[in-house]
Amino acid sequence: MTALTMRSPGLGLKRGLARHCPNCGEGHLFSGYLKVQPTCEACGHDNGAYRADDGPAYFTILLVGHLVVAPLLCFSFIWTWPVGLVLTLTLSLVAGATLALLPFVKGGFIGVQWGSRALAAE
Ligand SMILES: [Zn+2]
Fold first, then answer.
1. pLDDT at position 121, please?
2. Phi, psi at 20, each rounded to 5°
3. Looking at the 3D structure of the chain, how many domains does it have?
4. How far apart, in whole angstroms, are the C-alpha atoms of residue 51 and residue 10?
5. Rounded to the nearest whole angstrom, what is the distance from the C-alpha of residue 33 to the centroid of ligand 1?
6. How far is the CA of 28 from the centre of ligand 1 (A)?
7. Tell me, what's the pLDDT at 6?
8. Residues lower than pLDDT 70 in the chain
9. Is the pTM of this model over 0.70?
10. pLDDT for the residue numbered 1
């Protein structure tokens, strides 16, 4: 069974979330924080052909909004502490969570594209 016949969005998501090449699961998907390696160092797959655009940013905002911002509203300090202090704390938390999640979400986004064969060239 070749890697091409084993493609599935779930497998691509799993490999992408680990920031590995969705085609082989071994090579690194990124060469920097968010820069995709055009070619996998392990299998030679053309990972640069996948277009992530604004998709990972959209899903990251969606996740942070639901996992961080909404639960924060349940804490009473949000409503009772000085506004400047609350903004400093919450914006730092939101920015940190966003920057931490973005590479994983981008990897997952590219992995799902790989799994669903969302390439014009294939
Ligand atoms: Zn690979």
1. 52
2. -110, 165
3. 1
4. 18
5. 18
6. 8
7. 81
8. 1-5, 119-122
9. yes
10. 43
Q: Which pLDDT score, from 0 to 100, does residue 117 have? A: 84
Ligand 1 mean position to 18 CA, how many Å? 13
Both structure tokens of 122: 């294939």
122: in domain: no
Q: Give me the residue label for tokens 């992530």.
A: 52
Say if 84 falls within a structural domain.
Answer: yes
pLDDT at residue 5, as a whole number: 54
Distance 26 CA to ligand 1 centre (A): 6
Q: Is residue 57 part of a domain?
A: yes
Read off the tokens for 30.
């990124």
Question: What range defines the domain where residue 39 resides?
Answer: 9-115
User: In angstroms, what is the span from residue 39 Cα to ligand 1's centroid?
Assistant: 8
Q: How far is the CA of 51 from the centre of ligand 1 (A)?
A: 17
The tokens 């400093």 sit on which residue?
88
Residues listed for the chain: 122
